[in-house]
Amino acid sequence: MPFYVYILLCRDGSFYTGYTKNLEERARLHDSGKGAQYTRMHKPKRVAYVELFDSRAKAMKRERAIKKLSHQQKLNLINSRNIR
């Protein structure tokens, strides 16, 4: 089963990074205020970036790596492979 690492663009311009098995359901949870504490306070605008992995361990490792990036580095990553 695939796992997704995603970056949400929040309405205040910040980013939220997470991983999930079901991207559509997870995005709905974030939108409804039930996804994560961060996205309750920083309302999501859209999914800005997605990567697909074949294992939970690989997805978690990539999520941690992305979370360590600066805001500008995340913006560069999103712009390099935008999913609009």
Can you characterise this structure?
This protein is α+β, with helices and mostly antiparallel strands and 84 residues long. It has one domain (3-80): GIY-YIG endonuclease (3-Layer(aba) Sandwich). The protein contains four helices and three strands, in the order E-E-H-H-E-H-H. The chain has helices at residues 23-32, 37-41, 56-67, 71-80, and strands spanning 3-10, 15-20, 44-53. A three-stranded antiparallel β-sheet has the order 2-1-3, with helices on both faces.
CATH fold annotation: GIY-YIG endonuclease
SSE topology string: EEHHEHH
Count of individual helical segments: 4
The main sheet orders its strands as 2-1-3
Low-pLDDT stretches are none
Radius of gyration: 12 Å
**Mean pLDDT, all residues:** 94
Total individual domains? 1
The shape, in one word, is globular
CATH architecture annotation name = 3-Layer(aba) Sandwich
Q: Main sheet?
A: 3 strands, antiparallel
The amount of beta strand, in percent, is 25-35%
The level 1 CATH classification is: Alpha Beta
Helix content: 40-55%
Protein name: GIY-YIG domain-containing protein
Domain GIY-YIG: 1-77
Pfam families: GIY-YIG
Give a brief outline of the structure.
By secondary structure, the protein is α+β, with helices and mostly antiparallel strands. It is 44% helix and 29% strand. The N and C termini lie far apart (24 Å).
